[in-house]
Design a protein that fits this description.
This is YbjN domain-containing protein. The chain is of the alpha+beta class and 137 residues long. It has one domain: Yope Regulator, Chain: A (2-Layer Sandwich), CATH 3.30.1460.70. It has 3 helices and 6 strands. A hairpin with a 5-residue loop joins strand 5 (82-87) and strand 6.
């Protein structure tokens, strides 16, 4: 068990041969089947992993009610990621998936790896279902 660090995130991504980048703010992200997934460290001591997936499919304001219904159903039936609707300043709308893991007491590499692989896989699954919703609009 060790303190959760940014280096652990990159080591876990490297171990899976996942391609990723570090942005200007130092956040780690990657493109997974066309979906932008970030791996944030949040919390007072940055002890919490937040995996946030921005699904690539863009909707309009007319779709918000349908997207709320989709997210509510998804959250009812799936363990993760938590799905929610995000409205951008320009009026475009997208679905975001989020997985949170709190490692205040520390984490093993295996635990981190399992959360990352599960978060990426289920986020891609969410994106695929949103794609089906997009095609039916």
């Amino acid at each position: 068990m060790q303190a959760f660090t940014k280096e652990m995130i990159t080591a876990a991504l490297d171990a899976r041969d996942f391609k990723y980048f570090e942005d200007a703010e130092g956040d780690i992200g990657g493109n997974f089947q066309g979906n932008l997934i970030y791996f944030f460290r949040i919390g007072q001591q940055q002890e919490v992993l937040q995996v946030r997936a921005m699904v690539q499919h863009i909707f309009g304001m007319d779709d918000v009610t349908r997207l709320y219904e989709f997210c509510n159903s998804w959250n009812h039936d799936q363990l993760f990621p938590k799905a929610y609707v995000h409205v951008n300043d320009d009026g475009t709308v997208l679905v975001v998936g989020e997985v949170i893991a709190d490692w205040e007491k520390g984490v093993t590499f295996e635990q981190l790896d399992q959360v990352i692989i599960a978060a990426v896989a289920t986020s891609v699954q969410l994106a695929n279902e949103v794609a089906e919703l997009r095609q039916s609009s």
